[in-house]
Amino acid sequence: MLASVCLWLYLNKCSVSSACNLTNLNYFLKVLTMSRYSKKNQVSEKTKDDASKVARAIQKPGQTKEQTKLIAQGIQKGIEQYKKLQKEKQRELDKKLKKGGERSPSDVGDVDDISLAECSDKKLPWYLLALSWIGFVIYIYFTGFNNK
After folding, report:
1. Is residue 20 left, alpha or beta, with left meaning phi > 0 and alpha meaning psi from -120 to 50?
2. What backbone phi and psi angles, to 5 degrees, belong to 16?
3. CA angle at residue 28 from 27 to 30, to 5 degrees?
4. What is the DSSP letter of 136?
5. Which of 39, 41, 55, 118 could staple 72 via S-S, CB 3.0–4.6 A?
6. CA 128, 129, 134, 136: dihedral to nearest 10 degrees?
7. 131 membership: H or E segment, kind and range
8. Strand, helix or coil for residue 129
9. 8 Å CB contact between 71 and 51
10. How confident is the model at residue 88, as a pLDDT?
11. Domain boundaries, given as residue ranges, for the chain
12. Cβ atoms < 10 Å from Cβ of 50
């Protein structure tokens, strides 16, 4: 705090003995203390509630309140990180859409790969069903179904 007062005095070219405007000094100090509590450090109440609910849901018998509180804080940090990542992804997507409005060739290739994988995943059960029926028919043919 003393360093910030000295900085203010230096910036306003005031000496300690001179009669500086104290309201400006108070405003400067207020602004400095407000910067400590920026929006980045604030967490929504919903996130806190969700974290505490999850922590209570996984609470084990004999676990102290402090331990549960630490677990809730860890879950809360995880939720915050997840939200930050999602916001970054959304920003990048918005930037891409604003730039060209079209997909780049690499994006189109990624989508094609995904759609091919989905198609092959959808056809796989049918192939397995057909193979099992063919195997069943061959088994019946060689073992002789009408052995009496």
Report:
1. beta
2. -65, -35
3. 65
4. H
5. 55
6. 110
7. helix 105-143
8. helix
9. no
10. 95
11. 1-42, 45-102, 107-148
12. 15
Contacts 24+ apart (CB under 8 A), 6-10: none
Distance CA 87, CA 95 (A): 12
Which pair of tokens denotes residue 115? 């759609």
Q: What is the pLDDT of residues 71-114, one digit of tens each?
A: 999 999 999 999 999 999 999 999 999 987 655 555 555 555 55
Structure tokens at 117: 């994988």
Nearest-angstrom CA–CA distance, 86 and 111: 20
Name the pTM for this structure: 0.41
The Cα-based distances of 96 to 41, 87, 90, 100, 104 in angstroms read: 29, 14, 10, 6, 9
